[in-house]
Amino acid sequence: MNENPEHRPGPAAAARSRVAMATLAGTTLEWYDFFLYGTAAALIFNKQFFPSLSPSVGTLAAFSTFAVGFIARPLGGLVFGHFGDRIGRKATLVVSLVMMGVGSTLIGLIPNYDSIGFWAPVLLVAMRIVQGIGLGGEGAGATLMSMEHAPEGKKNLYAGFPQMGTPAGLVLANAIFLTTNAVLSDAAFESWGWRIPFLLSFVLVAIGLVIRLRVTESPSFAGILEKGDVVRFPLKESLKVGFPRLSLTLLAVVANSAVAYAFMVFTLSYGTQHLGYDKQFLVLSVTAAAVLWFATIPVWTTVADRYGRRTMFIAGSAAILLWCIAFFPLLNTENSALAVIAFLGMGLIIPVTHCVQGSIIADTFPARVRYSGSSLILQTAAILGGGLAPMISTALLNATGSSVGVTWYLVVICSISLAGAIALFRLVPSSSRGPELSAAAERVRV
């Protein structure tokens, strides 16, 4: 029997730590760029790129360009996943970081609608596609890179480091956005100051590249190369896992993305335009929630490594559903203290499922096709969940005039994910403590 590349001796502790920090730094910078766009779409882009539309329709148009990035993510996931399974994780992650940095920097240079008319939103969409392709290559790859370097018994913890980049990127984006807004007048910020955070992407990505170029290749992929076990068409091979397991994995993770983007992006426009909250208050509230999200990920991943992630993930899925019922009623009180509680609740609950979803998805596939298969699931969930959430929420709000429709939308999608998670963990007896499947489960899925 061939040696399983997952059982190869692990790298030195210093090298493992460097990889974990490099994946955290890289994903933080990628998500900084991606979330910066979301904040700008909620607060700025309707005036800069869609000035002829009413505020609500302009916001819907801006959120549509936000969704374009998610539609492009599967393309990035498939392309980078293919090459990540064929030539290695490290090289593909370097390229994805460069793409995101270039796309974000160029957004900061696009003239507005008043300057070049129709071409302004066209160029905005084009750069959003570049962003989406870059992030599509990053999401699964960074998780695999860190997880495949992990020591025994800490697979979830190491897989959680790249997940920490999501809230860290949000905090960084909002902090720079708020700082720029604070030092400039409102008129100056809305005219040209909003471009500064995008232009800073060039500097941040350069720093990220220095860190990322120092890491070693994944031991799992190095073992695959040594054995000559590289698959010619990894995506096709990954589908042999079977439709039931693929579809249930997708359903299990889709709600986390939808809820996260509804509370991080949609609430910025909803709170300012319909409830009268101050823009900076909302951004600060989302940022505070993201800090809590970031801080609790190591706690939850340690719990998953010690006690198993199945029960934790299902309980987290149920908690998200319940908090979605309470979230908008708390926000609608227009009471600042209750609004902060609503946001902090999201920051506490979302990481319970978010921190282990990467390792759960990776657990579905053997190492030789793991990048391609994980990218397929992760990016499809991102479209169905996160990419459409702000746009669907805005459309429901415009159609009904209240947030009740938005609440029901989130409750339904959370219920689907909860049912999917319960069914997934009953499907095959896969290990709940790491990316290794038992021999019986391996036979079932391959």
UniProtKB/TrEMBL annotation:
Q: Where is each Major facilitator superfamily (MFS) profile domain found? A: 19-432
The record lists the membrane-crossing segments as 21-45, 57-80, 92-110, 157-180, 192-211, 246-269, 281-300, 312-331, 337-356, 376-396, 408-428
Which Pfam families does the UniProt record give? MFS_1
Primary residence: membrane
Q: Where in the cell is it found?
A: Cell membrane
Q: Which PROSITE patterns match?
A: MFS (PS50850)
Q: Which UniProt keywords apply?
A: Cell membrane, Membrane, Transmembrane, Transmembrane helix, Transport
Question: Topology versus the membrane, per the UniProt entry?
Answer: Multi-pass membrane protein
Name of the protein described by the UniProt record: MHS family MFS transporter
